[in-house]
Amino acid sequence: MNRTTLILALLSVFSFTLCSCEGLALRNTRVKDKIEGYEAFLEKYPDSTEADAFRARVAELRFAAASETATAAAFREYLELHPNSADREAARRAEDQLSFEEASASGTAESLQAYLEGHPEGSSLDKARELLDRVLYRERVGIHELRVQQINLANNPDGPLDGWAVLANVVNEGRRTLKVIELHVDLLDADGNASGPDNKWWAVSPNLGAFPTPEAMKPPLAPGASRAFRWTTGDIPENWTQKAGIRVTDLRFEY
Hints:
Immunoglobulin-like, three-stranded antiparallel beta sheet, 7 helices, four-stranded antiparallel beta sheet, 7 strands
């Protein structure tokens, strides 16, 4: 065998070995069907005839993982990694919707403003603006003359003082009429932290649903007007210091 024939034979064996190795890796990668496996194969065999198919499969698996995680951050990461994938539009819609839902659940002006700035063509812009208006307007609802006193829960002046009332004067200090003002009463411990159950009640509401609605609560609250607030309970946490705080947790405008 001459030199040329030997070299050709060696090259043939080498090529066959490479093909065999790639073929084995190809089969193993398909069987395992994992992102890590596909990426490892593509790093080693970037020019494989299956490279495009494997890249598409990686995108599919990442989209499925983002859908299972169901967070805006997961879809943002997906779009950064696969901006031209077949599922890019579905991922953009999901990211937009989840971003709004997360901002809405957070209920802060910062989170809602971030949604508006990050989604100039978002599907929930009107909802986000309306919710942001409501969140910002909470600062225009004043809580004055806050006080705590023992009461008889049956409103019997001769009965035992078996409960407590948290009282305040709620003032609309803004320029818009309010048809709902939802408040949260915090019963404070020695460190000034809220303790006990979730205490929610309304200063203004046309209908409390399952609860009888006091007539004095029903009318909307005009700018500059005030409304007496009264919340009562007999369920007192052991570490309560007989001090309370009141927070505005939601409101609705009268249009």
